[in-house]
């Protein structure tokens, strides 16, 4: 009995061992084949239709492609789609490159255009390097005077007492034309300047002369009067008695007016910003240049032993016109946004316009386009070359074409 039990137990153990060996044998081929299949799958070339180009991730790793017609918002991650339509901005009209090389090339182009304008206004071509050793003390005296020139009645543009009330009324869409005319008429000098400008080539829109403030308000409307007001306030600053560089005041005014026209269009159509603010800043920068010019000539006259240097005048205007305009803007208590736009004019030489404020960009490019328009009108630059440079300034070519047509008709 005991022997039979041992035999049965032995047979069960042997059967269990045999069964285990069989199970192990049956599963081993699968474990060996799995790595081989994986290696084969990884080493097989992708079919021609799905093989990604060299250097690109496979399709599954790429971001989704926006559907046709989708707009990507500024600052969006490439491959993502902006959910809601946004306001038109400079991203629609510029390639906003932050490349240092691109910024340097753009600054060099603006500098070359400005130098041509100086040569035209000062009657000297070409303008050479600044004579630093002989005229350094003149430059230092000019810089010291400019620190408080905005506070001197000799240099600071007047701001009539009616201006704050007039601006407030012009911002009121319910204000009547008669109310606007009554405010302007309280300042005879302002009214005379406004009528003179309303009949000038820059602002006149009909062959019939405008002989009354009422008619000027009726024809130009609120926006037109706002634009004309800033010009009427500042244009008298460009009048100077005969003296050295007698063409400078007129060329400076033409450039300021052309810049105002271009900047207001860029602000409204490219930046969705206030065109009146852009126009006023353009004229203020022009006034800043005139003040630098007048201060420099006064310092030379007081010194007596040196003839005014065109190179010194050009250098000082380039470096100080926007700074003087900023001091005037501060005294007039203009907004921080407008003062920031004036600060941008100095920063543009060392940074990309992508980093400037929207109003600062509109003003900067408006100054370049306005200068090219004046150069073309005066024959200092072939019209086709000036137009090509304007189209390459950075703004949308279609927008520049519209501005250029207005400039050509005006100047």
Would you mind describing this structure in some detail?
By secondary structure, the chain is an all-alpha fold. It folds into 2 domains: 100-157 and 239-410, Hypothetical protein af1432 (Orthogonal Bundle); 159-226, no CATH class. Helices cover 63% and strands 0% of the residues. The chain has 14 helices and no strands. It has helices at residues 2-43, 100-122, 132-146, 163-170, 177-185, 188-198, 213-234, 248-269, 275-303, 310-331, 336-347, 358-377, 383-391, 397-410. Helix 3 runs parallel beside helix 10 (310-331) and helix 12 runs antiparallel to helix 13. The longest helix is centred in the N-terminal third of the chain and has 42 residues, at 2-43. The chain is globular and about 130 Å long.
Report the end-to-end length measured between terminal Cα atoms: 130 Å
CATH class of the largest domain: Mainly Alpha
The number of distinct structural domains comes to 2
The counted number of beta strands is 0
Give the helix tally. 14
Largest sheet: none
Low-confidence stretches: 29-93
Helix content: 55-70%
Classify the beta-strand content into a percent band: under 5%
Overall pLDDT confidence:
76
Describe the global form: globular
CATH third-level topology of the largest domain? Hypothetical protein af1432
| Rg calculated over all Cα atoms | 36 Å
